[in-house]
Amino acid sequence: MTENTGDNIGVLGKKSSLRSGAERVVNAPLPTVYGKFQAIGYLDHDRGDEQVALVYGEIGAENVLTRLHSECLTGDAFGSRHCECGDQLEAAMRAVVDEGSGIVVYLRGHEGRGIGLLAKLRAMALQAEGLDTVEANLALGLPVDARDYGVAAEILRDLGVRSVRLMSNNPRKREALVRHGVQVAEQVPLLIEPCESNITYLRTKRERMDHHLPHLDAVAHGS
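That's the GTP cyclohydrolase-2 sequence above. Prediction below.
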């Protein structure tokens, strides 16, 4: 893999290729309501997906505050209360700004934990009939979680990052990064206050997918 020639954002104007399949294509300033990020665009040649890393401030190589955010059109763009995805994306962007530096890798191709938008909507329809999110995927003959984090690890390595403080409640995300060669110095909780529309979904993530969501204990069961 092509190594970065520096430890910070100063080298991001260069175009680089990664032998493992992700190619850095463009670096553009992205002013947002949270702060001014650099949007680093990548092409994943293996899957054909276009990916983006939002970089804030001067990042180093170790213990970089990082969020790997799976694409969720319904939550991120439409404000769905079925999940907590949109709130988590907002919280992660605010967190890296408050930190003074960090990265949010927005992972396209991860819609519905990797099953795609239409399949996710079908699963949501089954959930409205009483199935939980795990049962709904299985009823459609689909995996519970089909996401792959290899390209995220490639992007982090291209940015010169060797270890992260990972904003996630999902232990499998941490395991995946470590398996792909990026060390996780700390797993930072990203807890969003539940609402009536997503409490069942969140409980299923905790009870059946091992997500660390201790704040749900304060919510009365069945609310």
